[in-house]
Amino acid sequence: MTGAIILAASIVFFVAGYRFWGNRVAGWLGVDPDRPTPAHTRTDGVDYVPTRPSVLLGHHFSSIAGAAPIIGPIAAASYGWTAVLVWILLGGVFMGAVHDFSALIISVRHEGRGLGSVLEERVGRSMKSLFLLFIFSALILVISVFTNAVAQTFVSVPETATASTLFIALAVVFGLSVYRWNLPFVPATIAGVALLAGCMVFGYNMPLRLSFNTWRFLLIGYIFFASTLPVQYLLQPRDFLNSFILYAMLAVLVAGILVANPEFRMPAAPAWQTAKGPLFPLLFVTVACGALSGFHSLVASGTTSKQLDNERHAQPIGFGGMLIESLLAVAALITAAVLSSSEYGKAAGNPIGLFSSSAARITESIGLPVRFGTLFMSLSVAAFAMTSLDTATRLGRYAIQELFESPNPTPARRMLSNRYSATGITVAVASLLVFSGSATEIWPIFGAANQLVAALAFLTISLWLVFIRKPSLFALIPGIFIYAVTMAALAWNIYDFGRKEKYILVTISAFLMSLALILGVTGVRSLTRAHRSKAAS
After folding, report:
1. What is the per-residue DSSP string for 276-339?
2. N or C: more exposed end of the chain, with fewer CB within 10 A?
3. How far is CA 378 from the centre of its chain?
4. What are phi and psi of 273, to 5 degrees?
């Protein structure tokens, strides 16, 4: 099998999925272009800001993608590329895109609030508190994984560190130019993209070399300030400008694969058991972003819903943004599948490095020098991870604020729900895990927690659909599947970490599993009551 055939077939599948299944889901959700969105009804200039769809798609896609749709498929390639590809294709269209789109609409219909508030309305405050605690735990894992991934990338390819640092300053200037100084959007965008290219050239010639720990400290300081600044002055413009790098990277990689048409050398047949563990259930938690990721529902109902200008934009941003990420995951899988088993085995411990070097060799077919191609791919991955990193920190802040909000708050609750205090708590807890010494082993727990968030999001979506008398099976069936799979994966983690005497990781896995069991049982009871109520009426 060759890369060009697989990629072309995947593109056709995703376009058809958007056109037919996406439109069907939009009908079931009742998308209404005439309904005012929270970005207009609750505008505050910090989190609730009406945003152009092109800018919001850039923010949303950059935030949901991260490095995970690259790391996951490459890490899972040892299970056989056929199994990974099928999961990306079917999961992306029928689970991931549905999950992201539905979470976005539900949040918009609830004043831009998170899924925990929706659960509180339908089930009760205790369910909301447990859900937010679970969400916060999952976000801490996200922050720790991506802090270490970005720091590792900056150390291994220091040119990306220079360019990424300059991107941050450029984003602030862009945000001020558009929102404070009222510079016309199109000229500002053209200038921003030109300066973005200049930052890359400068980074190429002036690498910034710092130690791994130094970068981790600097990144932790950065995400604190990024989470507390108004969204339109850093997060939104940086993600929008970064999206041009990400789109360019994807376009260059797709063109390289279509032109080079590389032959697959990795085994196609599924390997039911590898050194990582059994294919079922671990494949479904190893490949999250690109197929289905609970983190996406947190972005959709956290930052994106507060900036959505019109409900008609929800399908291209929510459903379409997910399928763009699925295409990236297919391309990442191809960069691993074209290697021999021995080449893959030597490089699999550094999936970002594997992706960058393999992608650079593929894009050499369209005239991109290998050294520059490696830098460009590494920079793109760092840009992906940085956007997920500061978005996850802001979402952690939202979770803490929702957890302590109250109609009649005490002074202590008022202090804890302050955006600076809530961000400080999020960053402090994440820092403990970042420097715990278990950074390389967090990924399996992160994957399982991430997919359990997706299962709980599907549960919330199903509850909402039942209450408003809409079809719910398109969300309920994927939710049941991914809940069962990820509970099995957490059980495997507990067993595997236990036999390796990694008791901190056993404790984290057991804690997440206990919370998920309580939430699952409570959610099923609520769903049963809702169905009975619907039948009675």
Report:
1. TEEHHHHHHHHS-TTT--HHHHHHIIIIITTTBS-GGGHIIIIIHHHHHHHHHHHHHHHHHHTS
2. C
3. 18
4. -145, 130
Query: What is the Cα–Cα distance from 459 to 359, expressed in whole angstroms?
Result: 38
The one-character DSSP state at 436 is S
Q: Which residue has the tokens 């009406």?
A: 50
The per-residue pLDDT for 441 is: 65
Terminal alpha carbon distance of the chain: 55
- How far apart CA 298 and CA 296 sit, in angstroms, is 5
163 and 199 Cβ atoms separated by less than 8 Å: yes
- Which helix (H) or strand (E) segment holds residue 461: the answer is helix 443-467
Q: Which helix (H) or strand (E) holds 274?
A: strand 273-274
Cα–Cα distances (Å) from 325 to 67, 88, 92, 244, 313, in that order, read 11, 10, 9, 14, 18
Tell me if 292 sits within 8 A of 451, measured CB to CB: yes
Helices (H), 206-234: 212-228
* 3-state DSSP assignment of residue 51: strand
Q: How far apart are CA 125 and CA 58, in angstroms?
A: 34
Distance (Å) of CA 42 to CA 108, 237, 255, 306, 395: 11, 21, 43, 9, 18
**pLDDT tens, position by position, 226-283:** 888 887 888 778 878 888 888 888 999 999 999 999 999 998 888 888 888 899 999 9
Q: Which 8-state DSSP code applies to residue 273? A: E
**pLDDT, tens only, 351-361:** 888 898 899 99
Which residue from 383, 384, 332, 315 is spatially nearest to 100, judged by alpha carbons? 315
Q: Which residue has the tokens 């085995």?
A: 345
| DSSP state for residue 30 in the 8-state scheme | T
**Nearby residues of 464 by Cβ (< 8 Å), 6 or more positions away:** 106, 118, 122
- Going by the DSSP 8-state scheme, the letter that residue 232 receives in this structure is G
CA dihedral 289, 295, 296, 298 (to 10 degrees): 180
- 3-state DSSP call for residue 469? coil
If you search the block for the tokens 């939009």, which residue do you land on? 26
Contacts (Cβ under 8 Å, ≥6 apart) of 107: 113, 114, 115, 118, 300, 301, 302, 305
Rounded to 10 deg, the angle between the 212-228 and 125-156 helix axes is: 140
Rounded CA-CA distance 84/208 in Å is 36
List all residues 6 or more positions away from 296 whose beta carbon is below 8 Å from its beta carbon. 64, 96, 99, 100, 103, 289, 322, 454
Cβ 116 vs Cβ 125: under 8 Å: no
> Domain 3-13+54-536 is of which CATH architecture?
Up-down Bundle (1.20)
pLDDT in tens, 312-348: 999 999 999 999 999 999 999 999 999 988 888 887 6
